[in-house]
Specification:
It is a single chain. With 346 residues, the chain is mainly α. The protein is built from 17 helices and no strands. The relative contact order is 0.10. It has helices at 6-20, 23-31, 33-51, 65-78, 80-83, 92-95, 113-122, 138-150, 156-164, 170-173, 179-188, 190-198, 218-229, 239-244, 247-258, 281-293, 327-338. The structure holds heme C (3 copies). Residues 70, 73-74, 190, 193-194, 196-198, 210-211, 213, 216, 221, 224-225, 235, 237-238, 241, 245, 253, 320, 332 line the site of one heme C (HEC).
Length: 346
């Protein structure tokens, strides 16, 4: 994978042959050491070539703390077991893999943003490196890239707070390799797992990194969790937690978050604040206001508020409220619908 990778790639290729039983093809390939090496050497170039086509979204800011935080909790449960993390060692079992997953702190600097995006979205063939669980959420993959960019300078304490914090005591998040044990404890307690990202109160831990789930209708929350778990709603961040627990536990979590008060809405921060009045912004806000309150009858667009009421006043137990959600979240979901890629409860 890395420049000079054949030495690590070669055993991976052999193992692949053994597993995939492409005997004829592989035996020939194995006999021809040079052919394998050239295949292996091509791989970093392949990433570079393929990723040249990746579109970087306009206005993407990989230093945005909300973007980094959005992906931190996922890193802890879906990447750190293989790659380690600040304060988290790699296990001997993982180091015995061929190729072994490298620690990423030393590696990310070798890649351009687009290359990292490509690797995280598609995974790496013939190795344990998995693809993102849905191919419909480039916004999530970019958040993971933002996290990877922040990783080399991250202290164990900062990592523990970002990825495991939110309602956990200091003793659970202490740096120095205890995070893996802490994670077992967290997963044993489903609410603490959700709280790593959403906060116990469902308000999203104050940076606008997560949607607010406090006070959403219980039926909507439960149906949405099932939809994530069954792959009917697309999210690489939410699929794993929604799949970890039984429907009964998800039901209890839905009840918990539905009963949380909404009043202390997340403080304005990156992602929640409307951008400063740009030229045309006033007109845009006025049009948005009209759409929300009156709709555009001439174009048969109903008012958003005919379905989306205020928190606590759902017109239907399956309709979420939207007021106070971070701007990125609303925008991302409207775009997903436009592309036909959001999925959901129906
Ligand atoms: C099951 C183990 C496993 C998991 C889980 C995993 N990876 Fe990997 N990853 C690997 C392996 C193995 C490689 C090296 C592949 C190679 O060298 O051919 C790798 C390589 C990488 C690389 C390229 C590093 C380099 O060599 O320059 C990046 C970046 C990366 N992984 C990010 C992630 C992220 C982000 C996640 C979580 C979303 C993740 N990985 C989850 C096993 C894993
Ligand atoms: C690793 C971080 C993380 C964890 C852990 C996590 N979530 Fe989420 N959650 C997110 C993100 C990010 C989104 C936004 C997904 C999207 O854009 O579709 C989200 C979305 C949701 C939504 C949809 C909100 C809406 O308005 O439609 C619900 C409900 C939810 N999470 C509940 C939970 C529950 C319950 C748990 C615990 C079992 C949990 N989450 C664990 C990150 C997380
Ligand atoms: C006919 C009823 C209806 C109307 C009108 C409507 N919506 Fe929705 N909207 C829904 C339902 C139902 C959902 C939940 C879908 C699901 O189960 O995932 C939803 C979800 C959403 C979400 C995602 C919320 C979340 O927490 O994930 C956004 C954003 C949204 N609507 C925006 C709008 C906007 C903007 C308008 C007006 C232009 C609008 N909606 C008009 C019924 C409606």
């Amino acid at each position: 994978m890395t420049p000079g990778g054949p030495a690590r790639c070669l055993p991976a290729f052999r193992r692949f042959c053994a597993v995939a039983r492409w005997e004829k093809h592989c035996c020939r390939a194995e006999a021809d050491q040079k052919a394998i090496e050239s295949k292996c050497q091509l791989r970093p170039n392949a990433v570079r070539t393929q990723s040249a086509l990746v579109d970087t979204p306009a206005g993407l800011d990989l230093d945005d703390p909300a973007l980094i935080q959005r992906a931190a909790g996922h890193f802890a449960t879906s990447c750190a077991a293989c790659h380690g993390a600040p304060g988290v060692r790699q296990s001997p079992v993982v180091l015995g893999m061929t190729p072994a997953p490298p620690r990423l702190e030393d590696k990310v600097g070798h890649w351009e943003d687009k290359g990292l995006f490509w690797i995280v979205k598609h995974g790496i063939k013939y190795s344990g490196m998995p693809a993102w669980s849905t191919q419909a959420r480039d916004d999530e993959v970019w958040a993971q890239v933002a996290f990877l960019r922040a990783l080399p300078g991250m202290t164990p304490q900062a990592y523990a707070d970002l990825a495991l914090g939110g309602g956990l005591g200091d003793d659970h998040t202490k740096a120095g390799g205890q995070t893996t044990a802490a994670l077992n404890g967290i997963v044993a307690n489903a609410l603490a797992d959700c709280a790593r990202c959403h906060g116990q109160d469902g308000l999203g831990r104050g940076q606008g990194a997560f949607p607010i789930i406090a006070g959403q209708p219980e039926a909507y929350l439960y149906a949405t969790l099932r939809a994530f778990g069954l792959g009917m709603r697309q999210s690489g961040f939410m699929a794993p937690p929604a799949s970890r627990y039984s429907p009964e536990v998800l039901g209890e979590l839905a009840r918990h978050f539905a009963s949380q008060p909404v009043q202390k809405a997340a403080p304005a921060g990156p992602g929640t604040e409307p951008p400063a009045a740009a030229p045309g912004r006033k007109d845009l806000l006025a049009l948005g206001g009209r759409l929300a309150l009156e709709g555009l009858p001439a174009r048969k667009i109903p008012a958003c508020q005919s379905c989306h009421g205020q928190a606590g006043q759902a017109k239907n137990p399956f309709y979420p409220y939207l007021a106070g959600q971070p701007e990125w979240y609303l925008a991302a979901h409207l775009k997903l619908w436009k592309l036909g890629q959001r999925g959901g409860t129906v």
